[in-house]
Amino acid sequence: TTKTLDCSAATKRLLQEMAGEGVKLIGFWGSPFALRVKWALKLKEIQYEYLEEDLPYKKSDMLLKYNPVYKKVPVLVHDEKPIAESLVIIEYIEDKWKQNPLLPEDPYERAKARFWAKFADEKCVPAIMLAFRTTGEAQEKAVREAREHLKTLESGLAGKRFFGGESIGFVDIAAGWIGIWARVTEEIAGIKLIDEEVALLDTWFKDFLELPVIKECLPPRDRLLELNQGFHKMLTAAST
Amino acid sequence: QRGHSFRLQEMGDVKVIGAILSLFCTRVEWALKLKGVEYEYMPEDLRNKSELLLKNNPVHKKVPVLLHNGKPIAESLVIVEYIDEAWKENPLLSQEPYERAQARFWARYSDELVMVVFNACKSQGEDKVKAIETALKSLAFIEKEITGKKFFGGDEIGFFDLAMGWISYWLNVMEEVGDMKLLVADKFPSLHEWTQNFAQVPLIKECLPPRDKLVEYFTASVTYLRSLAAQSP
């Protein structure tokens, strides 16, 4: 009987592990970086406790404790062990839970996926953010660069439906949110980032964001607009 | 003999497009050497980039690029992870997911610090003071990570150490050229000790570029960038 009990405890533990017991996500509803971690957790069917930070003006002691280096969201806390930086978190999720893999098996394909996720984060995003917070000539330059980088990102799609192929994967969840935030930026800053010049990318954004598992996690657009309008006012006032 | 040619077949054709002074390129060489992978080094003149480089890294047009059986991979940390996955022996990353996450986190942090230190090196006045302050704060975090350990990876060097590796050699050159002191032994004793341990490992040491050439390069870069800054409106 003891043996059976031991087996049950072990199985129970395994099931809990698989479901992600002891997993907390510290995030902010308006953060695209927290959003992509949510997507990863959802795709892996991990149960977790979500803890909302009262950003942008307050940071909880908990956040400062779990992410002393950057003091930012998102932070994943698993069995009291924190991980920061959303792409690092997503790779952790991929390593820890083997179901529904986000990365392909082939090392070369994995390298390409990491390359494109990095490109989106290091080139597309900063350029879009710069276009968002500047005006005049500086903004024009930022818009040109952002458009160029989005065109390059499009080349990574290489005629596939999603970066992950027929189904979504690492790069899709790493960069798909840009489809929303770029449009918010366009509306608020009065610029054009995504148009017929990146028609394939535009289609990819639409297809990705329409997927139920993705759509369900999106923050309400009007709230997002309002939040970013506030940022825009502050940032453009500061730069003049 | 048969064993040798089987090994070569296993490895495939491996080329590194690089520049010997680049810390990002040395990182890739370290990884290949740790794995025992033989490769051909194809040095680039970055002022006159080759067709080979432009063709194989059209997005960034930068070194390093790894070519494995003709297939190109760019971005040094992406390359190092690729090397770890393509050749299974002597793993560079731990098998344990949390440790892997930590190594990846600090590797990115390390790359950010390269830019901060270079910025401190080339800046003057208030900008320099600020950059030095940021660098020192960052080094304090890194000191915590190495305290109590011989290497960042534990008893053996791994991904984490390779990512931090520039601190054991390039940092000091930037300190000299930038006329600043960052990695002071009594402030960061564990990190300082690690720089000694790391740079002494034979296959690490053998990839280090000549120091005088590095000093020359950084001096020229800083002079050039400062002159540009002096011309801006």
Automatic annotation (TrEMBL), chain A:
The GST C-terminal domain, residue ranges: 106-231
Family to which the UniProt record says this protein belongs: Belongs to the GST superfamily.
Catalytic activity: RX + glutathione = an S-substituted glutathione + a halide anion + H(+)
Domain of life: Eukaryota
GO terms for biological process, alphabetical: glutathione metabolic process
Compartments it resides in: Cytoplasm, Cytosol
Domain GST N-terminal: from-to ranges: 21-101
Functional description taken from the UniProt entry: Is involved in the conjugation of reduced glutathione to a wide number of exogenous and endogenous hydrophobic electrophiles.
A single Gene Ontology CC term: cytosol
Organism: Dillenia turbinata
GO MF annotations, alphabetized: glutathione transferase activity
A Pfam family assignment: GST_N
InterPro entries, alphabetized: Glutathione-S-Trfase_C-like, Glutathione-S-Trfase_C_sf, Glutathione_S-Trfase, Glutathione_S-Trfase_N, GST_C_Tau, Omega/Tau-like, Thioredoxin-like_sf
Record EC number: 2.5.1.18
UniProtKB keywords: Cytoplasm, Transferase
Main location: cytoplasm
Protein name (record): Glutathione S-transferase
UniProtKB/TrEMBL annotation, chain B:
Coiled-coil ranges from the UniProt annotation: none
Domain GST N-terminal: 12-91
Gene Ontology cellular component annotations, sorted alphabetically: cytoplasm
InterPro entries: Glutathione-S-Trfase_C-like, Glutathione-S-Trfase_C_sf, Glutathione_S-Trfase, Glutathione_S-Trfase_N, GST_C, GST_C_Tau, Omega/Tau-like, Thioredoxin-like_sf
GST C-terminal domain segment(s): 96-221
One Pfam family of this chain: GST_C
Record keywords: Transferase
Reactions accelerated catalytically: RX + glutathione = an S-substituted glutathione + a halide anion + H(+)
Stated family: Belongs to the GST superfamily.
GO molecular function: glutathione transferase activity
EC number per UniProt: 2.5.1.18
Highest taxon, organism lineage: Eukaryota
GO biological process terms, semicolon-separated: glutathione metabolic process
Descriptive protein name: glutathione transferase
